[in-house]
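ok so I'm stuck.
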Amino acid sequence: MKAIVIHEPGGPEVMRWEAQAVPAAGPGEVLVRHTAIGVNFIDVYQRLGRYPVGAYPSIIGSEGVGTVEAVGGGVTALRRGQRVGYAMRAPGAYAEQRVVPAAMTVPLPDDVPDEIAAVLMLKGMTAEYLLHRSYAVQAGDTVLVHAAAGGTGLLLCQWAHALGARVIGTTSTPAKAELARKHGADEVILYAQDDFAVRTKALTGGRGVQVVYDGVGKATFLKSLDSLATLGHLVCFGASSGAVEPFDLGRLSAGSLTVSRPVLFHYTADRGRLEQMAARTFAAYRNGKVRPEVTRRFALKDAAEAHRALESRRSVGAIVLIP
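replied:
not stuck anymore, here's the structure
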């Protein structure tokens, strides 16, 4: 088989298309032949060395879907030829085939296409835990979603709107703002033109929002706090602009605010919860609450170009790799 291999951390140029031995499924594992692979910022962090990838050379990537090629010992719930998807912390998705623990895979419903599943496994289940577990959005809440035109941002806008929330999004361009509006954002702030904290307070009559979903990190963190209503909650689930710097905990006392830094893989580590999250995510797709936008497709061998597109901040929606 072939895979995208990195021999050292660095920019997209360190990603090489190389031949690899096909791995064998051991006890409790399945060998998956990928049909679509999701591209996420966690993959960029792995490539840069911010997140550990083990010994080099290494294969990055966390989200994939495909068909079961082989079943290891002790695996009884899956069969050869079955469609499955997964999202997991351990890197290795940027390959034509990959061995995955059977307990981390989810059988794919027949009505969920492979490319859509390659978005829903990580981005979709991220939206699920953010909206239902980190902070349970209620009808009548007002929520602020950063990077509202990104792959996860669009899902958050759609799903929060379906839950009855008023959704305020932030984006960098008018075109992205229009896309966010089409996917459930009631108001969109162009952060390059307006102070989003000031504008958010103005849009809420000075009260602020119940929750901010912030996958940007360093560049938005403090103003995200300023955007919250009394008893509001900041969910910092990513750091595309860099890690959040230490801050004075006393700032939270201004409104009895709370901050969390959740990670998808802690939620999905429990098999029962993983199944619940996947079922709710697939149901949200099935009933139209979420409609993933796959806006860019790259051949797996061109994964470096996919990373350049993602890091340029000019991309919208989701990016997938096709082996």
